[in-house]
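REQUEST ID: PR-0412
SUBMITTED BY: lab tech R.K.
PRIORITY: routine
TASK: structure prediction, single protein chain
INPUT:
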Amino acid sequence: MKFFVAQAVSLSLLLFVIPQVAEAGTTMRTGGKAFAPPAFASFCAREPRLCRTGGGSKLVVLQPEKASELQQVNRAVNARIRERSEGADDWRVPTAYGDCEDFAILKKQELLKRGWPASALLLTVARYRGEGHTVLTVRTSEGDLVLDNMTNSVRDWSRTPYNYFARQSQSNGRRWERIDGARQI
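STATUS: complete
OUTPUT:
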């Protein structure tokens, strides 16, 4: 009986959590080197562990508990940190307030603490309504998912309103790659 209850719970989690995270979708197709955001180098000098991406798994198999963990981290950081523009571009791990890249950095830190591989957690820059915007891209078996301070939903990157142009390289987090479009998985 315990087996059937466990199976029913697993199935209901699978049916409930994964559709809320994303419809299986797309991965970012990269096409060569890109310039890192100007404040990225000084951030990496202060926080080298948060700039690393090499080694480990290149993507995470998105099981229900992993999908739930993404939702939890995205919501918790969005609720804990207040949105506030810094004026000058200054990438930091926020404690009480920050702007978009600070939210993305804290989400990356939280997922690393939970054992997620650095190579699957990539800081990513885009344009939205004429302004620069930074999100955390998570490489998964269900496509590249975005954790964003502008929504509590975790979504496939290609189903967001942004024009993406660069992200951290999976093999060397101090390098950035140009995003050239989507690839169906």
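NOTES: Residues 1-23 have pLDDT under 50 and may be disordered.
REVIEWED BY: pending
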